[in-house]
Amino acid sequence: MSVKVYIDGQAGTTGLKIVSRLENREDINLLKIADEDRHNNQKRAEIMAEADFTFLCLPDDAAREAVTLAGDHTRLIDASTAHRTNPEWAYGFPELAPEFREKLIKSNKTAVPGCYASGFISLLYPMVKHGLLPADFPVFAYATSGYSGAGKKAIAQYEGDDKPEEFNSPRQYALSQQHKHLPEMQLFSGLTHKPMFNPIICDYYSGMVVSVPVQTRMLDKKITLEQVNQTYQEHYQNAKLVSVNPLMLPEEQKSFFLASNTLSGQNKLEIFTFGNDEQILLCARLDNLGKGASGAAVQCLNIMMGIDETTGLL
């Protein structure tokens, strides 16, 4: 027996990816709205009332309005920023802890994590949870990302014949330290202070690496690189879509390059621990459109349906 799924915002980058992941599944009856009715609230409300699950792939304000439009007729999975820090909504990162998974199973409203936030929180939550970093530690993070997460307009610029010369170079942005992912990055990592975050958009389509350097001399207690890696291994030992790479020998690290687009098109997240006991570099690699967006959204749907969370994702 199939469930009925509607994607509100099916023409956007994330919406299109979710469509492609669901349209050939036999357990999903994908409800689609005509292009001319995409902004017709009556038509949208009618389809939401028919659907068992509705994805919101919309700008924040539109996603908030859509919740009212949906009422209590459908279970919501929101891929916008609008509800990620709302305690009434489940946060769709089940690998973090059993309580996240349990709330996701029971909830009628789930917020899909942001792409940068997914990488950052995968690194910081275990560090704070297991006492390797104090909650008030001054955290800095940087990230390299493909341009697909910047939306249709930016994609057209990067792929157009008249691409500006500076688009050939990595470009830093959100320099005011007001990036929209920061509230969830702080909240779900357990930090008492907002981290500094330096995102960098690059001239390739998709994939990202989020990196967090840690100078261990700033800590009150000594931690080792091996201890950090072992903590990650144990924390994510049962995760199906999050993996932790073993420690590399110093000579292996010297010749290793960490590419940001390796997981493009996949739905996994990889964790790496580099450096040494004095200077530890934590890295999370994922596809910003996969585990960082549409893949995570479909994983949430699978869990809410009560089926294997990796269905259609591996």
What's a concise summary of this model?
This protein is of the alpha/beta class.
Spatial ordering of strands, largest sheet: 8-9-7-10-13-12-11
Task: Please count the helical segments.
Answer: 10
Number of domains: 2
- CATH homologous superfamily identity of the largest domain: Dihydrodipicolinate Reductase, domain 2
Describe the structure.
With 314 residues, this protein is α/β, with parallel strands linked by helices. It folds into two domains: 3-113 and 292-305, NAD(P)-binding Rossmann-like Domain (Rossmann fold, 3-Layer(aba) Sandwich); 115-288, Dihydrodipicolinate Reductase, domain 2 (2-Layer Sandwich), CATH 3.30.360.10. It has ten helices and 13 strands. It has helices at 13-22, 41-50, 60-70, 98-106, 115-129, 152-159, 182-189, 225-235, 250-254, 290-305, and strands at residues 3-8, 28-31, 53-56, 75-78, 90-91, 109-111, 140-145, 171-172, 196-201, 208-215, 242-244, 269-275, 279-286. The strands form two sheets. It has a seven-stranded mixed β-sheet. A six-stranded parallel β-sheet has the order 2-1-3-4-6-5, sandwiched between helices. Strand 5, helix 4 (98-106) and strand 6 form a beta-alpha-beta unit. The longest helix is centred in the C-terminal third of the chain and has 16 residues, at 290-305. The chain is globular and about 60 Å long. The protein starts with a strand and ends in a 9-residue tail after the last helix.
